[in-house]
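Provenance

Sequences were taken from public entries as deposited. Structures were produced by running a predictor on each sequence independently, with no templates supplied. The record for Tigger transposable element-derived protein 6-like from Bactrocera dorsalis is shown for reference.
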Amino acid sequence: MTGSLWSMIMKEFDNEMGKQKRKVLLIVDNAACHKVDGLNVENVKITFLPPNTTSLLQPFDQGIIHCFKVYFRQIMVRKQILAIENGLSIKQFITPISILDALNFIKRAWWFVKSDTIRNCFQKAGFQEEDISFDPIEEIVDVPIEIHNFDEYVACDSGIDCFGVLTDEEIVELELE
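Predicted structure for Tigger transposable element-derived protein 6-like:
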């Protein structure tokens, strides 16, 4: 995620909320890419989680992301097994996978995440049932890595940052807040 991408997403989301005549509160983690100067939105109020609390307060970190990864990697493993059963090597399996294929795998994995899982994770993060209003959910390269069980496979990317690195000035600014 980058600041410019975040701005674009927020402007589109704000426009959509305006078309629906809705005002919404969006609670986001305090990643630097989310703190964009001059972001002018009328229908979306953005509130940041306190620093160093994302893993405790963000509903997606309470199990939704983990559940999605389990389903995604399950899809990948099943496809790999099918490829091997058809006599393909891992490289032959991976090579023809397009971005569209990957997006379809992502879509399928997300559809497997149950609305109960999402509801439970929001409750675990401190949201009360009456506060939650959402519709139910509807429907690799050949690199050696040491993974000894499926849980390790699911969590193999848990330490990878998913947003840009803070500059020294941004770190100082965050500490002064």
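The chain is about 50% helix and 5% strand.
The chain has two domains: 3-53, 59-154.
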